[in-house]
Amino acid sequence: MKDAMKRHGKWIQAAIGKPGALHRELGVPAGKKIPAKKLARAARAPGVLGRRARLAETLKGFKK
Questions:
Q1: Which residues contact 55 (CB under 8 A, 6 or more apart)?
Q2: Could you tell me if 5 and 39 are in contact, meaning their C-beta atoms sit under 8 angstroms apart?
Q3: Which stretches of the chain score pLDDT less than 70?
Q4: What is the DSSP letter of 18?
Q5: In the chain, domain spans
Q6: How far is CA 58 from CA 8, 40, 46, in A?
Q7: CA–CA separation, 17 and 53 (whole Å)
């Protein structure tokens, strides 16, 4: 991921390696919004699930 940050600042594209993985892990159908409470709980989880949820929370803040 550090290489992606150096390349023109496109770190978001590099960070999203498996689109839809968080939806599948949380049992939310694709195209539906992940409830904030469920996302917050997943963000506290260790490992890949927690990392994906924390990234989703970060990206949620970018939306206007």
A1: 15, 16
A2: no
A3: 1-8, 64
A4: S
A5: 21-64
A6: 20, 11, 17
A7: 13
User: What is the structure's pLDDT at 11?
Assistant: 83
Q: How many CB atoms lie within 10 A of CB 54?
A: 15
Direct distance between the N- and C-terminal alpha carbons of the chain, in angstroms, rounded to an integer: 25
Burial of 28 (0-12, 13-18, 19+ CB in 10 A): middle
Distance between CA atoms of residues 5 and 44, nearest Å: 25
Question: The whole model's pTM is what?
Answer: 0.79
Q: Please count the other Cβ atoms lying within 10 Å of the Cβ belonging to residue 21.
A: 13
